[in-house]
Specification:
By secondary structure, this protein is α/β, with parallel strands linked by helices. The protein is 23% helix and 25% strand. It has a 12-stranded mixed β-sheet, sandwiched between helices. The longest helix has 16 residues. The chain binds the ligand O=C(O)CCC(=O)N[C@@H](CCC(=O)O)C(=O)O and zinc ion (ZN). This is Succinylglutamate desuccinylase.
Amino acid sequence: MLAIGKLLELTLAGREPCEKVQLTPRGVKLHWLAEGALLVSPPSGQDQGVDLVLSAGIHGNELIPIHFLDRLIRALARGDVQPRARLLLLFANPAAMRRMVRYIEHDLNRLFLGAHADVWGGEAIRASELEALVGGFFSVSGRQRRHYDLHSAMRPSRLAQFAICPWREGGGAQPDALARLHGLAIDGVLLQRQTSSTLSAMTATLHGAEAFTLELAEGKGEDLPPAVLQFEQELIAMIEGRELPAGAEAQPQLLSISREVIKRSSRFRLCLPADIENFAPLPLGSLLAEDDGMRWVVDEPDARILFPMADVAEGQRAALIVVPLEQSDK
Ligand SMILES: O=C(O)CCC(=O)N[C@@H](CCC(=O)O)C(=O)O
Ligand SMILES: [Zn+2]
């Protein structure tokens, strides 16, 4: 295997490869661009016109996506995967990955679209570096731009794998993008209703990419869970240009965010069982959270909980209340 194929090892060790550009025996070019950043180019004549960014490790404690991207990079370097798309592969937050923590100073996935200018530290610098890497990659016109930012949720989920579609001016997810997600074994898509400063919001907004945050199924240890293995198989088919054209009728379940619960003080408390699953139903009229005299009571019929996390910084999201969407509400 080519040395660049060990990108995860190099990144965790803070090392550069001896040769920054390497070619596989079948002519695929692997180009190390910066810490944790690899550009993969198919041989001329085999490129089908798709530019795909895959990022993992923006949260250093989400190990499934990091392991997933490592497997893909090794397979590309061995020549087991023969791409027909250009790829930008990113281990997004090496410092947090080394310590296996969500972030060091600031949640990197809140620092894009200019937000990094308001804070100091390693993650602010990395956000600006990632913006530049992605900007360079997506600078070629006339190509299809896609981005999947890979995460794994901190708790079990009633929808094994789901996507978050960032809000952007002029419309949400297109039917063919949703059908593609369905083909990738994604069970549900949460449509954002307002702007955010995540990595996928940045690639969607600045570069018009078909961009989603993907929450892969959680698992234990090194073994990838079956749903992630299915995602891997389908994603490799996309990378190799073997993807089946998906019918627009094949769509994941759509949901939308009804309310964001923002932690305001150290007295914030979530009134939920610690082991509650993502998308578990919230009884109408029940108390969801309280904080310094403020109370969040569930008043949405058919509400579900997503990403409950009391241990976040003040001012940050501590939970989402989401509701299923009728296809006609899109
Ligand atoms: O499991 C959790 O509580 C957090 C999972 C996670 O990191 N989710 C992403 C979602 C990003 C988005 O809204 O597109 C995040 O919080 O950054
Ligand atoms: Zn995450």
